[in-house]
Every structure is written in C-alpha cells, then in structure tokens.
Amino acid sequence: MTTAATRPSDRRVSPVFLGILAVTAVTGWATWTGFAAEPGLAVFLFVTSAWVVSLCLHEYAHARTALHGGDISVGAKGYLTLNPMKYTHALLSVVLPVVFVIMGGIGLPGGAVFIERGRIRGRWKHSLISAAGPLTNVLFAVVCTAPFWLGALDGVPPAFRFALAFLALLQVTAAILNFLPVPGLDGYGVIEPWLSYGVRRQVEPFAPFGLLFVFALLWVPSVNGVFFDAVDGLLGVLGIEELDTYCGFDLFRFWRGSDELCGV
C-alpha cells in the first residue's frame, strides 16, 4: 500500500497557514523591538498566532502519522496542507482552544482531523497516531524553553521573554492534558487499541464530552492549584520562573491593564 498523497496539491502548504505564520513573525518582531505602542497587544497577537501555528502542527502530526500508517485519505481531506479551515470542526479546533487560553491560560487543542482507522492495521500504529499530536507540543515546548535552560536570555527584551514563557506554558499544559487517558483526548487514543471491545463500547458515548469535562474540572480551585503547581514545577526545572509566565499571561490579557510588577 502506498503511503504517499495522491496529488502534489494535497501536500502543498496552505496560504492560510503561511499567513498565520507571517502574523507570528511580524508580531514577534514587534514584541522584540518594542515597535508597538502597547506591548500587550503585540504579545496577544504573537502568542495567539503562535498558538494557532502549534495547533496546526499538532493536527498535521496526527495526519502525517496516519498517512504513513495506511490512511491515504488524509491527503484528499486537506489535512497535510496545515490549513486549519480544512479541519473537521473549525470551532472546536481553533476558536475553542483560543478561548481556553484567554479564559484560563490553558493550552488544550480540540479534535480536528478525522482518521479512517479501518485503513490502519496494528495497535502500535493506532497508538502512535494519537501520540503524535501531543508529542509535537512537547517539541514546541522544548523550542520555547530553550533560551531559558540554555541561559541565552542576555539581551532578550522583557516583553518577548514573558511572551515566550507564557507560550511555553501553553505547550506544556497542552501536552500534559492531551496525554490524560480521558475519552476524546489523545491520551485515551493511545491506550484505546489495547482495551477490550466491551470497554471501548461503554466508553464511546462519553468521548464528545471529554474535552469539556477536563476544562470544567480545571475550574475547581483545588484541582487547578495542584495542576498548575505541577506545571510551574516542570517549567521551573526548565529555567522558567513563575513571574515569567505570570507576566506573560498578564501582558496577553492587555485589555485588563498591565501589572506594575512586570515592569514593561
């Protein structure tokens, strides 16, 4: 069975994605140089567009792994073009994750690509397809945190440092939450092939609500505290202090006014 997309256009990078990438680059430059009169607006646009870029890469990783696993239909569906407009549910795939970020500073990608699992043979392939998305967030987090754990922050403007720290927090939370074995999330997709048919049938009705259940659970103060303590601890190991992520989120929500503590 061939694992190549049938047409070159099925793999051509979408102008929509390139446009989002351009917004990320321009607003990143504005954040770095202080070109914008209000750094908060530049940070908001930079983090939001970079977050959408990571969402596209997350879903591309699922689709690309599925392609090599045997599902050649992903090319015709446009999943290999990195175009978020091709996703199954644009609201759940892009809008809802951005709302999650604005409301609670939580990175949680939604379901976006439909994989024809019947074309794929082997439990390990199914598990790898599900794991590919959050592993992309892990890689994105490594890139975002590299200046911190490499000690390469000399000369980095505070606003850009804070924005990068907050973006790293989003990637870490996305990776952790997506690996939870909750129906509807990638973590469950990793273990699902190894469950009995009876268990899968019982769990299946809950899959559409898994994402909202996790988000609702994070609004419980005790759960939220434990979760973010763990996230802050992990980021601390990578050289990112809580003040960095706090100020990044503070600048991101520029409409609330900036905290003097952040000194930007």
Automatic annotation (TrEMBL):
Cofactor dependence: Zn(2+)
Location(s) in or outside the cell: Cell membrane
Domain of life from the UniProt record: Bacteria
Keywords: Cell membrane, Hydrolase, Membrane, Metal-binding, Metalloprotease, Protease, Transmembrane, Transmembrane helix, Zinc
Membrane topology: Multi-pass membrane protein
GO molecular function list: peptidase activity
Transmembrane segments: 16-35, 90-115, 127-150, 162-185, 206-228
Endpoints of the signal sequence: none
Keyword Zinc: yes
UniProt keyword annotation of Transmembrane present: yes
GO biological process, any: proteolysis
Family: Belongs to the peptidase M50B family.
Protein name (database record): Site-2 protease family protein
The organism of origin for this protein: Streptomyces lusitanus
